[in-house]
Amino acid sequence: MRRMLVILLTVLPIALLHSTVSPPIHSAELNFDPLPAKSTLVPQNLLKLIHAPEVQQELDLQGDALNKLVEELIAIDKVWWPARILPEEQQRKTVADQEKRLLEFLKGNLSKEKILRLKQIELQSQGTRMFARPDIAKTINLSKTQVSQLEKQFDKTDRLVASNKVAQDQAKLSEIQSAKDAELKMVADVLTDKQKSEFGKLMGSAFDTIKLTRIHPIAPELIDSMKWAGASPVTLAENRGKVVLLHFYAFQCHNCVANFGHYKRWHKTLADQGVQVIGIQTPETPTERDVSAVQKAAKDSGFEFPVLIDVKNENWDAWGNTMWPTVYVIDKQGYIRFWWQGELNWQGATVDKTIEQLVDKLVQEVHNQ
Questions:
Q1: How many domains does the chain have?
Q2: What is the tens place of the pLDDT at every residue in 9-36?
Q3: What is the pLDDT of residues 257-267, one digit of tens each?
Q4: Beta bridge partners of 278
Q5: Are residue 121 and residue 238 in the same domain, yes or no?
Q6: In terms of domains, do 130 and 249 share one?
Q7: DSSP-H helix ranges across 211-367
Q8: If 0-12 CB within 10 Å is exposed, 13-18 middle and 19+ buried, where does residue 216 land?
Q9: Nearest of 360, 330, 363 to residue 238 by alpha carbon
C-alpha cells in the first residue's frame, strides 16, 4: 500500500531579504521564462500556485478573466494530473510544457505587472532552490563556482529525502532537516551583498505560500461507459456546489472491500450536508469485467450511490490512478483537495476521520471558483 502523495511548497525566510531599500526590478528587466525541465533541483510549483484562490486574488483574476483561466486549467489539468505517475524525466517534461502553455495564456490576459507578481510568488515558493534556476543565476550574476556550491548542497538534501521515502525514521528526518538548514546558511554565506540586494529586489512583497490549501488540479470529468450500478448516472459538472467523495475500487479486491462500510456510511450521513459519493469500478480480474457481475456485487454490497463501471479503464487512465482502492476528495468548485491510496484504516490509520474533518471544512468553503 502506497502512502498518499503530499505536495508542499517551500518559502525562503524573509530575514534574507535584508536589502529592501533599493528600487524593485521593473518587469521589463525580469523575463518570466518557463522553468527548464532539466532544472531538476527546482520544484515545479507554477501549476500548483495558479490553482490557489489566494494567488488568483493577488493577480486580480475575477469575473470573465477568472472564467477564462478556469477553462484553460481544465485543458492543462487533463495532461498534468495523469503525468504524476510518469518517470521523473517524462513528468518534468510534461509539467514544463504545461507551464509554458499557462504562461502563454497569462501573457495574453494579464498585465506585465501581474505577470511579474506571479513570478515573484513562484520564486518565493521555491525557496533556496530558486538559485538553481538559470534565469535567476543570470539576473543576479551568480558565478559558476557559486552555482556549483549551491547545487551540491541541494543535491545532498534531495538524496537524503529520496533515501527516506519508504520508511521514515527519526534520525533520518533529523538529518534531512539539518541539510535543509544548511541550504539556508549556504545561500547566506555564498551570495555577495550586491547579489543579496538584487535578490531582495526580485522577490517583491512577502506572500505566504505555505498556507495554500488548493494546489491540486481540477478533477477530470467522468468518462461515461454507459454502464452503471447502484444509482442513476451522474457527472462531476452537475455536482458543482457539492463536495464529492470519489473512489476507485474492484469488487474482488480485499483492500477495497475493507473500505465499503465507510463509503456507505458517508452516503447515508453526509448527503444532507451536500456531499455526493461516487464509485468507479475499474476491473482487475476477468470476473470484474463482467458488467452484470459488477452490478450484482454493488447491489449485494448495499451501494445506493452511483457506480460508474469503467469497462475500458478509461477513467483509471484519465486520473492517472495506480491502486485499488483510491479515494479522492473533490471540493465544491471541482478541485481535488486530498487523496488516499489503500485501506482507510490500515494498521490503525484513521484516514476516514481525516477525510470527514476535511469534508466539514469544505462544505463551509466559499470561493468565486
A1: 2
A2: 455 554 454 444 444 544 445 567 889 9
A3: 999 999 999 99
A4: 246
A5: no
A6: no
A7: 254-257, 260-270, 291-300, 314-318, 351-362
A8: buried
A9: 330
